């Protein structure tokens, strides 16, 4: 018999009764039933109940073992009585009568429970991550991660993509988020950067004559942590030559749909996949207040600026903003006429918690042609204007309109938040489920026609709004003859249930267009040559039209696992402050290491004082 096991802990069945077997694993639970000890033995595959009889010479030793000790047990498989069969376990019809036990590793008292969720906080779970990963939920999530990535690879290879590995140590890039920098020992004063994405390398592969590239690419961005963003993450990175935007969608969409369909029932609730028609960026911002809208939410935002600009409307709080170029947006909340005042007050309080003065509303008690508006601002809106509001927004008796007034960009952002808050409030009331987020579905949509440039208020200059390597719609002619803020690019995002899952673009493959595009954003030819000279030179030797995108692997898994935090779908991960208390990272390094790298520390005073105190 094998030294450690003849079977895994999920395999034994009634067919094995009478056989002598050997299992190895961790002690999940120990139960003392009047001198008879029951041990649930766990490995990564499942559980088996093991028994030490009263009077057994093993009883004293086993009773001293703590949970999470690693043991090997040998004994006969016995059928459980009908009264003790456990249908919730794969091995619930049998148990193993222990004749021999070998302790492979005795466990100390554990800092939190593994066999059940005892509410341990994130800090202690991350410090003892190896214990946390033994929990059934975490084991399932990590296996899901493995299976999703394997499926991605299979599906990409199935479409004749080649897998490449691009450099981890590369050059710092002036665009995007902050780089993680790595000092060079051999080149004093110079630094490598960890890649924010393999952007330039994958384009260079297209210019090298490869037609279809993909990679499960590690990426690094020195940004503040949040639930759906980590410093280190992975993406399904894709690039193709001689393709249009629609051909890229048509190629990658079956891959993503196949993955979501394959793992749609991971949480036990079967969910379908639905692709909605493309949305132009400006339409997404107008209707949903976001470029990554949750399209399960049925509510839409409507522009009602013209109504509040009417001469007969006397609501100066809005009128004064409109005179300065502002806008008024409205969100219809259906069938809330019978709701108490607290329904509206809670939404008003929510708006104030978001930094707004409040959330004005009008409740229409009459029919659309005689609406009889009620509410804090209804008295400022005459009957004719109320009728116009009902017509524009599709209101009926019992509906309410909530209003947001601000400059266009800020109004869109806050209206998007208000749309979600109103939807959540509707879903909490009796009969409001018709207007709640649709459940059991992944709603995908491509957001297209992003603006090429935006005005950076802080720097008081025009800058790229997204990927600077994108092809402007209209090419060089548009760059030379149009207002930069009116130029769209062949940029696109894929969104699902309120998350941006992918960003991509048809790339700029012509050097003269690249030079002009960067010049508009304030990058001179010298900067372009210094920072992007490799790719610019490659374009000068014949570059094919090409495009691609990158899907966030981690966010895909987060959606499939229905987890609100990315840290639940990684094996090893840092906390929200990017600290790893298990491995004590980041850490101070020794003086001789700094000397090798030709570096001296210039720490903030507060940091120096804390180090001295330590």
- Measured as a percent range, the helix fraction is 25-40%
The major pleated sheet works out as: 9 strands, mixed
Q: Termini separation (Å)?
A: 54 Å
Strand content: 15-25%
What is the β-strand count?
23
Return residue spans where pLDDT drops below 50 for at least 5 consecutive residues: none
**Helix run count:** 18
Overall average pLDDT: 93
Gyration radius over CA: 31 Å
Give me the secondary-structure category.
Answer: alpha+beta
The backbone outline, from C-alpha atoms, is globular
Overview of the molecule:
This protein has 614 residues and is α+β, with helices and mostly antiparallel strands. Helix content is 30%, strand content 23%. Strands 6, 9, 10, 11, 12, 18, 21, 22 and 23 form a 9-stranded mixed β-sheet that branches. It has a 5-stranded mixed beta barrel with strand order 1-2-3-5-4. A 5-stranded antiparallel β-sheet has the order 13-14-17-15-16. Helix 10 crosses helix 12 (408-427) and helix 13 runs parallel beside helix 14 (511-520). The mean pLDDT is 93.
Write the layout of secondary structure elements.
Elements: E1 20-33, E2 36-42, E3 47-52, H1 59-63, E4 70-79, E5 94-105, H2 122-127, H3 129-132, H4 136-158, E6 162-163, E7 181-183, E8 191-193, H5 199-207, E9 212-220, E10 232-241, H6 245-262, E11 272-275, E12 279-280, H7 281-288, E13 301-303, H8 305-308, H9 316-323, E14 327-333, H10 341-353, E15 361-364, E16 373-374, H11 383-393, E17 400-406, H12 408-427, E18 441-448, E19 453-456, E20 461-464, H13 475-481, E21 491-496, E22 499-506, H14 511-520, H15 525-539, E23 546-552, H16 553-561, H17 591-596, H18 605-613
